[in-house]
Amino acid sequence: MSWYCVRSHQKKEHIAARCISDEIQVETFCPRISRVKRTRSGKKRFVDAMFPCYTFANLDLEAHLQKIRSVRGVSRLLTYGSHYPVVPDDFIQAMREELHDDVLHIAEREFKAPAKVQITRGPFQGLICELVRASSGGERLNLLLELFGSNVSVNVSAVDIQLIAV
């Protein structure tokens, strides 16, 4: 048995995962993100798929390939040509260790410019820069970063930023 990536219908990832688990009796993993978004009626918490249109199933490919294609909510198994790529067990395990009940809870944070922030993940990890502005939903931030003696504007996810107390 190995982990495979299953393409589901849009916004039906959790349904596909449940149906696979119920109908084929295999382990599934459908990581999701819980975050606050602004709506016309105010702020609301939404739970969306971490990987839109995809979920994971631990399958015996030969035994389950025909069955998985007919499961409700499933579009197809991810392929590259005629090859079905295996998702490493370590990846699934690492994801599960980071999530609570398969959900990544993103705390609501308000960033207001100007402010000093530090990038906590990605290629610019550890760099301190100036917050220029936040997107209307607050999910993306525009930062002014000093690189090689000049200022460069970069857009970064708010999840990857930490406010620095001055």
List keywords for this structure.
166 residues; single chain; five-stranded antiparallel beta sheet; Alpha-Beta Plaits; SH3 type barrels; alpha+beta; elongated; 3 helices
Explain what the structure shows.
This protein has two domains: 2-105, Alpha-Beta Plaits, CATH 3.30.70; 115-163, SH3 type barrels (Roll). Helices cover 19% and strands 43% of the residues. The protein is built from three helices and 13 strands. A hairpin with a 5-residue loop joins strand 10 (128-134) and strand 11 (140-147). The longest helix is centred in the first third of the chain and has 12 residues, at 13-24. The relative contact order is 0.17. The mean pLDDT is 86.
Can you summarize this structure?
This protein is α+β, with helices and mostly antiparallel strands. The chain has helices at residues 13-24, 61-69, 89-98; strands at 2-8, 28-29, 32-39, 42-49, 54-59, 74-77, 86-87, 103-105, 115-119, 128-134, 140-147, 150-157, 161-163.
Question: Which secondary structure elements does this structure contain, and how are they paired or packed?
Answer:
Layout: E1 2-8, H1 13-24, E2 28-29, E3 32-39, E4 42-49, E5 54-59, H2 61-69, E6 74-77, E7 86-87, H3 89-98, E8 103-105, E9 115-119, E10 128-134, E11 140-147, E12 150-157, E13 161-163
Parallel strand pairs: 3-8
Antiparallel strand pairs: 1-5, 1-6, 1-7, 2-5, 3-4, 9-10, 9-13, 10-11, 11-12
Number of strands: 13
List the domain count as a whole number. Answer: 2
CATH topology category name of the largest domain: Alpha-Beta Plaits
Our measurement of the CA-to-CA distance between the termini, rounded to an integer number of angstroms, reads 52 Å
Which geometry do the CA atoms define? elongated
Number of helices: 3
Average pLDDT number: 86
Radius of gyration: 20 Å
Order of helices and strands: EHEEEEHEEHEEEEEE
CATH C-level class of the largest domain is Alpha Beta
CATH second-level architecture of the largest domain = 2-Layer Sandwich
Helix percent reads 10-25%
Main β-sheet, in a few words?
A: 5 strands, antiparallel
CATH homologous superfamily grouping of the largest domain? NusG, N-terminal domain
Unreliable sequence segments: none
